[in-house]
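go over this record:
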Amino acid sequence: MAQTIALIGFGEAGSAFARAADWADARAFDIRNDRAGLAHALDVKFARCAADALADAELILSLVTADVALSVAQDYAPHLAPGALWCDMNSVAPDTKRAAARFVEAAGAHYVDVAVLAPVDPARLAVPLLLAGGAADAAAGALSAAGFGNVRVVGAEVGRASAIKMIRSVMVKGIEALTAEMMLAATRAGVAHDVLASLDASERGASWFSRAAYNIERMATHGLRRAAEMEESARTLAALGVEPLMTSATVRRQREAAGNPIAIPTGCGT
């Protein structure tokens, strides 16, 4: 049976999902009105306010930025229909998601902790999703019906999916930040090609010329968003009693890399 879907936030993730989906009655709300044209081009109704987007919506995908994920849940919860599934897909710490859940549940809706484990483009509806919370099973069914093809429930406790994502990000985004630091130094020393070739010679797998180029591109394009995510990872570690020394440094390196790509030399592995 068709379900009414609302997307809160219509940036990269929301538009990528809408482009791949066949949603008959999808609505979107974004504080950036300039995204209305993109929504209409993808047959998504662009609501004039959050209340209009959420009215009678059964499945809500919260796709905002990490710094406003909690306030959006708090501010928009009163507009949720009873029994609605609020799928929080934002990259925030478990404690942040548990705080958001309290507002959503108090409004009579169901909160679902969703971790998105890969870039939404090009994966789109095939992107791996981890779900946690009391309504995780129901949300898994609703998301599958909406076209998502890689959904897995990891537990009934809100925050479990987020913990997996945030702790995993310590490695994924940390490697990106280390790559940027290495390439900044190698470029200034005039030995970038030799450093990458040396790494290729000592490891098997994907060429370091390709890996470095990919890591630098992700940071240059998404560094600000990744920095915000890593701040949430740092909060996750701190809550577990682990001092986030490297993770805090990754926040700074990701933020500084935003919009500042580093030239990567070409090699036989590219």
The chain has two domains: 5-158, 162-257. The radius of gyration is 20 Å.
